[in-house]
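REQUEST ID: PR-0412
SUBMITTED BY: lab tech R.K.
PRIORITY: routine
TASK: structure prediction, single protein chain
INPUT:
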Amino acid sequence: MMFRIKRRFLSWNIVDEGNRLVAKIKNKRCLGAGKNILDNNGNIVYTTDIINLPKPKELWNTPQARSYKILRGKDIIATASFYCKKEAKDNVHQQGLILAKLNDMHVQTPYGIWNIVRQRDNSIVIQNGDEIVGTITSFFALKAQKLNVLSKIDP
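STATUS: complete
OUTPUT:
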């Protein structure tokens, strides 16, 4: 199933192949990581936010260092942990979040642990073990991103 992610001011619309709105993602606040994920009627279905932050001057490139939670009501349904590449020249972890070097993300979901890996062309591959669950085209393109759900898991 193919979806398009259309960028709006402080939000994103997700539309299906028939150009029908299926979901919307909006910032909770003007600035901040928190998001509300709404259905096509504008009802909040999920919320997301940071659950912990790195301490100053501490290596943060670990599973516990920077995580986000996805909630349905008050129940946590998924937790994402981000990982960045090591610097090749000195083989040490980065000290700050530089989006250009974000490597992959592990998401604990009701379906198991998903690995979300950034590709060389800045597209994203979503895997559940060896199975590819979906792909997303590069967010650095000026046109709408495409989310292709390849698995039998409900998008």
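NOTES: Confidence is low (pLDDT under 50) at residues 90-100.
REVIEWED BY: pending
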